[in-house]
Amino acid sequence: MRRALPAGLLALPLFLFLAAIYAWPVGSLLASSVTDPSPGWQNYRHLFTVPVYLHVFFNTFSLACVVTIATLLLAYPVAYHLSVVSQRQLRWLMFFILVPSWTSILVRSFAWLVLLGRRGIVNSLLLSLGLLHHPLQFMFNTGTVAFAMVEILLPFMVLPLYATMRNIDLTLMQAARGLGAGRLQAFWHVYLPLSLPGLMAGISTVFVLCLGFFITPTLLGGRRDVTVTMLIMQQFTALLNWGFGAALAAVLLAVTLAVLLLFNVVLRAGRRVA
Amino acid sequence: MAEAALSLNALTRHYGGSAAVDGVSLSIAPGEFVTLLGPSGSGKTTILRMIAGFERPDGGSIHLGSRDITHAEPERRNIGLVFQSYALFPHMNVAENIAFPLRMRGVPAAAREAAVARMVSMMRMTGLERRMPRQLSGGQQQRVALARALVFEPPVLLMDEPLSALDRQLRREVQSEIKRIHQSLGVTIVFVTHDQEEAMFLSDRIAVMRQGRIVELGTPAALYAKPASKFVATFVGDANFLAGTIAALDGNVASVRLSNGTLAQGQAVATLAVGQDVACMLRPEQIKLESGAGAVLIGRIELVNFLGGALELECTTPAGPLKIRTATGAYATGDTVHLGWSPADMRIYVAGP
Amino acid sequence: MSAAVWTWAMLAFLNLPIAVIAVMSFSNGDFLAFPPPGFSWRWYQAALTSPRWIDAAITSFEIALAATALATPLGIAASFGLVRGRFPLRGALMQLACAPLAVPSIIAAVGLYFFFARLGLVGTSLAIILAHAALSVPLVVINVAASLRDFDTTLESAARNLGANRRQSFWHVTRPLLQPAILTGALFAFLLSFDELIVALFVGAAGTTTLPMRMWTSLRDEIDPTIAAISTLLVVLSALIILGAGAVRRSTGNDSRS
Fold first, then answer.
1. Residue C191 parent element (H or E)
2. What percent of chain A has pLDDT over 70?
3. Do residues C13 and A78 touch, judged by C-beta distance below 8 A?
4. Within a domain: residue B1?
5. Which of C220, C191, C230, C196 is nearest to C18 (CA)?
6. Does residue B150 lie within any of the structural domains?
7. In this structure, are residues A74 and A158 in contact, taking their beta carbons and an 8 Å threshold?
8. pLDDT given at position C258
9. Is B250 part of the contact surface with chain A (CB cutoff 8 Å)?
10. Cα separation of B50 and B70, whole Å?
11. Same domain, B202 and B275
């Protein structure tokens, strides 16, 4: 029998392509963080010693935490509901989740801009109802940015959660109740652990997306609401500090990979325990 | 002598360190229905896969008629195969599934349609041609798989436990169907199953397999009445075993002292010596309920199981437990029964696994 | 509160912003206002007759098409390699192939800017096409690999036994059953490229302007109701693609699972 070529070779074209168009450019960029404007670690020293930049990282990080937790709390019941409804209902519900999630972030951020601006919807409505006398300043603060980010990222928490929940065998919950567990206990001891893979996937996805957010904070945030991505943008477009910008990008990448790795490890450890 | 339709010669296949198939040789005559019967892991499916071309033997050869197909690509072997899961193409309807092998052989459309129509009517599936596989019942899917495997008139048809997914009633029906098709087409069939009733029902000959080897090859009747080993006796049909030691030997006829001291006569199936530990085999229907003098053992009925046209009595005797099959009658738990049998029916094997 | 009510509330929350934009896009007035003073198609007319917007839309369309055409075969081949290959670290390599999607795109944007600058390709469509292909290939891989993993390989064995060689078996059996996943992956790859802003901003610079880039500059300058109209059209595009993907999945109930 003639042996066919190993199937693994088929993956080669993609990896060569990604090496050329992704890995190499990103690698060069990271390298420039220690070569531009002159060789050495000055860019990193600057990054870690001047407080402003660490503040930006901290702000971005805490924003990501807040948004992730809020999204999780909002998404969990939705994903559960999706996992128990009929096929027909599911299709409709899914449609109204997928359409916003596949609508460009630009459009969605613009929508919030319109809704929460001085002459936006919310203000007009409240003014016309007589609840306000002057338009409220919703915009350009961290709360607005967080609020909009939660709305935008909600589907990305719902979908992984749902993917795991639809495979959870609900008779296990019935068994727990039959054995004497109350609703809350059954949830805590049986359902929640079983939903953990989806939960981990959702958290890591949303958190990493938060770290990379640029459009929403730029449009909706105030002077003090600078995220790392915005900072990097600034360095490259306005300030032309390429080496420093690259250093910022390198740290962002490191944090991203650390988060992804952490969740991967936690997930695998959780599986072994389960 | 006519040329074999399919012959396997010292076929061997290793996995890791052990032999999944260990030097199997088998010659199948044209039109014969041969079953490979054995527990899982006995190598029967591996042999089928090697015949079909999905696995490469490590040693030995396979001949289809006079053609050596040992190393031929699967698509060149021209052998019909019915998979355990049927493997019907879900994106093609019944007619397209059946026509597929003809398309691959370049048969023109008109001839294809005619052949498909013939197959569909032979399988009694007229009217279902446009249905998709997921719209068919298990039995119907089975028939489509069979039709697809036979439409190109292969010299040999392989069937890999094709009935395991069907419920009992349906199995019976499909088994009869397969027998009917075998007789009307005269195609050579190699059937794989672990169900001994099925094997006996369908086959001209059965090859009982164990750990990669054929331990016995024979007609169902021969295997049932005169199994050559304890393993085959247990695997094919129900078997009762009574432990004992050889008291005397006269050629093939042995006198055995059973565990309670009773002497019984039987046929020795191997070279035995006086004093050797043996196991004596009796089929349930071979044990008769005597009255008085002819009895060898006296037993007590523990359970009466109703089998429809017959009764199964589970009895305890001083020599060991026995399962008896008899015509319906008035028996009850606790009854005393007198049991006897013909010495020609009792087969004596060396004791041990 | 039941999960059902909560879900409907969340769904309303999710769709409210774009619904409001859609309503406002039909406004009669000169500014964005809610409720809109009157019903009019004028902003849609403005969008569809303005050369700026039309050119940008066409550019986005062409780029997305080309990027998808590049990403899809690469993704299909890679899926086969990663699912059916037998080599170490397949899991890790699968994750690596999805990296462009997982990592913040600003990093790729800047890196690719310098990369293409050295090649003199900044501002060209080609650069954006290559960049978008890299970003969207994970979508193809995720979809096709998932379908391949569930694929019943005995179907391919059956095809071989029935007389098909490897090529025929792929063409007549494997390909039709993978079609839904391939189409889904391609549709979403297209959408990703069409909507993508950050990488396009850097790599396209002043030379090529995609629709998102045009929208971005307009948003920084003034909030023009035309943007509301274009946004609504983009939402409709997303909705169509999602409906398309759904229809593909349900088409004759193709299922590679036996």
1. helix C175-195
2. 92
3. no
4. no
5. C230
6. yes
7. no
8. 30
9. no
10. 8
11. no
Residues B83 and B174 in one domain: yes
Determine the length of chain C. Answer: 258
Domain span(s) for CATH 1.10.3720.10 in chain C: 52-253
In a shared domain, residues B229 and B324:
no
B7-43 pLDDT, tens digit each: 999 999 998 888 899 999 999 999 999 999 999 889 9
Q: Work out the average pLDDT over B263-289.
A: 90
Pair C108, A214: CB distance under 8 Å: no
Q: Phi and psi for A27 in degrees, rounded to 5?
A: -60, -45
Report residue C18 as tokens: 């774009």
Closest chain A residue to B55 measured between Cα atoms? A1
Residues B130 and B16 grouped into a single domain = yes
- What are chain A's domains? 40-273 (1.10.3720.10)
- Rounded to 5°, the CA angle B5-B6-B7 comes to 130
Alpha helices, H only, B10-108 = 44-52, 94-104
B201-216 per-residue burial string, b: 16 or more CB within 10 A, e: under 16:
bbbbbbbbbbebbbbb
What CATH number should be reported for the domain holding residue B342? 2.40.50.140
Residues near B292 by beta carbon (within 8 Å), at least 6 away in sequence: B338
Within 8 A of C9 by CB-CB distance, chain A residues are: none
Token reading at C232: 């609504």
ipTM: 0.88
Percent of chain B topping pLDDT 90: 70
The number of folded domains in chain B is 2
CATH, domain C52-253, list 1.10.3720.10, 3.40.50.300, 3.40.50.720, 1.10.10.10? 1.10.3720.10
A259 touching C (Cβ < 8 Å): no
Fill in the DSSP letter of residue A21.
Answer: I
Q: Do B53 and A2 touch (CB under 8 A)?
A: no
Among A107, A208, A232, beta carbon nearest to C110: A232
Residue A126 has pLDDT above 80, yes or no: no
Helical segments of chain B, H only: 44-52, 94-104, 109-122, 138-150, 168-185, 196-202, 220-225, 230-235
**Chain B residues close to C252, C-beta within 8 Å:** 91, 132
B89 lies in the same domain as B197: yes
Residue of C nearest to A109 (CA): C17
- C206 is written with which tokens? 């002043």
Same domain flag for B229 and B258: no
Q: Contact, A246 vs A236, CB < 8 A?
A: no
Neighbouring subunits of B (3+ Cβ pairs under 8 A): A, C
Residue numbers of the domain that contains B96 = 6-234
Cα C95 from chain centre:
19
Contact B148 C154 (CB under 8 A): no
> Which of residues B181, B212, B234 is at a domain's end?
B234
Residues B60 and B167 both lie in one domain: yes
Tokens 């699972």, located at residue:
C257
Q: Which token pair is A38? A: 């002159």
Measured torsion, CA atoms of residues A21, A24, A30, A35, in degrees rounded to the nearest 10: -120
Distance CA B135, CA A183 (A): 41
* Chain A touched by B61 (CB under 8 Å): no
Q: d(Cα B79, Cα B76) in Å, to the nearest integer?
A: 9
Last residue of a domain, one of B172, B207, B234: B234
Q: Pick the most confident of B167-171, B189-193, B328-332.
A: B189-193
Contact list, C162 vs chain B (CB under 8 Å): 75, 100-101, 104, 148-149, 152
Domain co-membership, B218 together with B330:
no
Q: Write the pLDDT tens digit of every residue in B56-101.
A: 999 999 999 999 999 999 999 999 999 999 999 999 999 999 999 9
For the cut 50, the answer to whether the pLDDT of residue C254 exceeds it is no
Within 112-151 of C, beta carbons closer than 8 Å to A belong to: 112-115, 130-131, 133-134, 137, 141
The pLDDT of residue A41 is 86
Amino acid (one-letter) located at B64: L
